[in-house]
Amino acid sequence: MDIEDLAKRVSAGERRALARAITLVESGRDDHRAQAAALLARLPQDRQALRIGLSGTPGVGKSTFIESFGMMLIAQGLRVAVLAIDPSSSRSGGSILGDKTRMDLLSREKAAFIRPSPSQTHLGGVARRTREAVRLCEAAGFDVVLIETVGVGQSETVVAEMSDLFLLLLAPAGGDELQGVKRGIMEMADIILVNKADGDLKAAANRTRADYAGALRLLRKRLQDPEGYPCAMTVSALQEDGLEKAWESISTLVAWRQAQGFWDRTRAAQARYWFEEDVKQRLLAQLQGPEARAALATLSDDVAAGKADPSAAAQAFVDGLRQ
């Protein structure tokens, strides 16, 4: 594979080259990882897109919202990339990867790029190499990158570590289904959008928006937020209502953070976070070697047989890795 040529084609905005590059960075093969590193090193470093993380409960209409929102942005002359993470089966390891089918109109747009990726059981609501895929989309000249997580939950907040803005989509009268995740994910959300605010659900959507607006006021105000943020709004992705107001709210928050210096500081902190995460993953990869696995199996048998204390055995294993 000619990495130099691939880098030039990605930088020129070729969607086929971008898809090939993402496949490369998602590969776990050692030779592909080396090629991916070489590719990322050859890409422009000065291109930045607005990274928007998006999560929500199942059935809330994330795909419909992304399509309507993306079409609106394209109508304003922007290029939009969508990285949709699908959950992988813990048994077969497979994923449906049907997001392109559900975003039929957006997938036909030349100014759009949609890439479904399997989570491969990686926690955090995103795939392991999603951050690198975002880098590739930025290098390809996209203005907005939407990162759709596998669903809502405490672990989905990892997407906030690779985005400039985190949107949480809720359904009208969704109340009880979010009781277990409210605190964690609401503390990370910058804007809550109550979707399906149309027809018979419009009144319920307004009540839900008011409920969550009140809940947001109870949460401690964050330094990176101007007055009035985080906020809750209603939208109807189906009727394309409220989308422009949502975009105005997003643009206002982003402009304020850039003016206050939070944008650069946040991205620097995110870079540090992913550096440390990559170090952890590389250390964990050492456990897959034949010698390490043999030592782990032996100590595991000793622990199971009561011949060794779990803590002492763990310390012995770690000491063995250092030698």
What ranges have pLDDT less than 50 throughout 5 or more consecutive residues? 88-98, 121-126
Shape descriptor reads globular
Q: What is the β-strand count?
A: 7
Rg over CA atoms, rounded to whole Å, is 22 Å
Helix content: 40-55%
The helix/strand order is HHHEHEHHEHEEHEHEHHHH
Query: What is the average of the pLDDT values?
Result: 83
Main sheet strand line-up: 3-2-4-1-5-6-7
Number of helices in the DSSP assignment: 13
How much strand content do the residues show?
A: 5-15%
By secondary-structure content and strand pairing, the structural class works out as: alpha/beta
Measured between the Cα atoms of the first and last residue, the distance is 37 Å
Keywords:
323 residues, seven-stranded parallel beta sheet, 7 strands, single chain
Overview of the structural elements:
The protein is an alpha/beta fold. It has helices at 3-11, 15-26, 30-41, 62-75, 99-102, 104-107, 130-139, 182-188, 202-218, 243-260, 262-285, 290-304, 310-322; strands at 50-56, 80-86, 112-118, 144-148, 165-170, 191-194, 231-234. It has a seven-stranded parallel beta sheet with strand order 3-2-4-1-5-6-7, with helices on both faces. α1 (3-11) crosses α2 (15-26) and α2 (15-26) crosses α3. It starts with a helix and ends with a helix.
